[in-house]
Each structure stands twice: as C-alpha cells, then as structure tokens.
Amino acid sequence: MNTTFIAMGVALLAGIGLVVTVGVFSLLSGAFHFLFARPKFTILKSKQESNGFAFSLKWNSSREPAKFDSIRLRLFNPFSNPTQVDVTRTFDAASSTFARDLDFGKNLGELLEACNHESASVEVEMSASKDALVHHFMFKAEAFKAMVEAATGDAEKFNEEHSLNYAKPLYQIPKRTFIAEPLPASNKALKISSNPEFAGAFAGAAGDAPAAENFSISKVWIEPGCIVCDACEAIYPEVFEVTDETCLIRPGAPLDNGLLVEEAAEACPVEVIKFTK
Ligand code: SF4
Q1: Domain locations in the chain?
Q2: Among 10, 37, 84, 204, which residue has the fewest nearby CB atoms (within 10 Å)?
Q3: 153 CB contacts (<8 Å, ≥6 apart)?
Q4: Which among 238, 273, 274 is the best mutation to test ligand 1's pocket, defined by most ligand atoms within 8 Å of the CB?
Q5: Which residue has the CA at smallest separation from atom 5 of ligand 1?
Q6: 1.10.287, 3.10.450, 2.60.40, 2.40.128: which CATH number matches 41-166?
Q7: Per-residue confidence in pLDDT tens, the chain, 277 aa
Q8: pTM for the full predicted model
Q9: What is the 3-state secondary structure (H, E, C) of 4-33?
Q10: Is the alpha carbon torsion for 135, 141, 145, 147 positive or negative?
Q11: Ligand 1 atom closest to Cα of residue 246
C-alpha cells in the first residue's frame, strides 16, 4: 500500500514539474521575443534631394508574415510651434527585410526644423495595410534629427545585401497540357456512332476517310449473358428486340445490313451478339 502511494506521489510531482517547466519555457520564449526579436527600424542616408528620407526595416517575416507598404512620421511638439507635423508615404510592398529611399516632400523639412524642443518626440509608424499590422517606433525628436543627419547606410545597397525573399517564387508550377495527342494517321472510318444519342453530333467526324462497304450476313444470334441494356435495339431495332429478360432476334429480321449488325455487336457491353457473313 505504502509503495503505491509513493509511486502516485512521484507521478503527481513529475506531472506538476512538467507543466511548470513548459509554462516557464513559454514565458521565457515570449519575453525573449519581446526583448530581442522586435522589428528593427534604422534610418539610412538618403540619396534624394533635401526632402529625402531613407530607412530599413528588419523583422521575422516567417513568424510575422506581412507586406509593409506605408510609413508615417509624426512629430509631437506640445510646447512649441508647430505642435504636430504628420507625413505619410506609401511604397511598393515588401514582405521581408527591406529598405526604401523616399521623397517626403516639404513637410519633412518642417518636421526636422521642429525637432529642437527637448520635450518633442517623433513616432515612426510602419504599416502593412492589407494585413492590418502596424509597428511603432518612438524617438526623442532631437535624437531623431541627429540620426537623420548622421545616417550613413544606403537603401539600394541594403536591398542588394538582403536579397529580397519576396521576389522568389513560392511554388513550382509543373507544366502540363490537357490537349490530347492527335490520332495516328489511318484510312479507317471512325466508329463513333455506336451510341445513338451522340451519333448525330459526330456525323461526318471521320473526315475524308473512305466509307466502309456494307455486306450481308447469313446468320445473327444472341449467346447467353445478355444484360438487357437496350444498346443493340437502339442501333438496329429491325433486328434486335430486348425483352425484360434477354435480347431476341426478330423473326424475319433483315440480313442485308451487316455494318449495322456489326455496330450493334461492337456496342454490346458483354459481347453476346454473334453473326456470320
Ligand atoms: S447489347 Fe448485348 S447486352 Fe445489351 S441488350 Fe443487346 S444483346 Fe443484350
């Protein structure tokens, strides 16, 4: 009895230990991601005229798939004038680490001019509009201005070095064709009128192939095994009569149209129609 209780206690402790371990790892993973795996926004040196602003964005695109296509710079300057400057630019969407060098117009100059007050701040808002995802980066306005003036990177080079993953195809599409190969050349007439329902639609499909010559038969009969499908009667009702149980040859059936009898025999799914020429 004591041994059983001890075993149950050990199992319970092991279970609790496992749950606690998983929980701790989960928390650590979240904290690690929050602290070290946040998207990284960097200001680069613009090659545009005075209104140019270059930047790069790095983020874990496999963990956070999104196409960023818009940037917004907002200056909050509560104790000076202007109190707020807001500039937004859109660009061709990027689904992994990228850089852009954009012309922000004259408002950028106004924003940088107003960065001198120590209580002012600049917020950079990167948006993936179709994915409803936004990342914010806050800077002291003075630090933001200093970073713009001291920037060295080059957006074009940055993109070359971080070869854009999104330009690569995600899936290979095998080449296939659904067009049938042409039929081999033959002077035989196509026997496609076996099903009377479609015979009219295909009439003349044999093209210029010579028509088969008709012939007479001396005898036609049905062997055991008929499944009463009616195909033969539909093709040549003057010869074949399908009853509830089998198929019969009509008394006095004409024997001069061997082609039609042959067609009925070929249409028979169980091949029980026999004839002799
Ligand atoms: S086609 Fe063949 S199986 Fe169908 S009814 Fe005629 S003999 Fe019978």
Answers
A1: 41-166, 196-203+212-276
A2: 204
A3: 42, 44, 45, 54, 56, 99
A4: 273
A5: 228
A6: 2.60.40
A7: 567 778 888 888 887 888 877 777 666 655 555 555 678 999 999 998 788 999 999 988 878 888 999 999 999 988 888 888 889 999 988 888 999 999 988 888 888 888 888 889 999 999 998 888 899 999 999 999 999 999 998 899 998 888 654 444 555 555 555 556 566 666 665 555 455 555 555 555 555 555 678 899 999 999 999 999 999 999 999 999 999 989 999 999 999 999 999 999 999 999 999 999 8
A8: 0.49
A9: HHHHHHHHHHHHHHHHHHHHHHHHHHHHHH
A10: negative
A11: 8
For residue 165, the 8-state DSSP code is: G
Beta bridge partners of 86: 74
Compute the half-sphere exposure of residue 227: CA atoms within 13 Å on the CB side of its CA.
Answer: 7
The answer, yes or no, to whether the previous bond of 269 is cis (omega within 30 of 0) is: no
Name the closest-CA residue to atom 8, ligand 1.
226
* Alpha carbon of 224 to ligand 1 centroid (Å): 10
Token pair 């909050």 is found at 76
Q: How many CB atoms lie within 10 A of CB 94?
A: 21
How far, in Å, from the CA of 257 to the mean position of ligand 1? 18
Residue nearest to atom 2 of ligand 1 (CA): 268
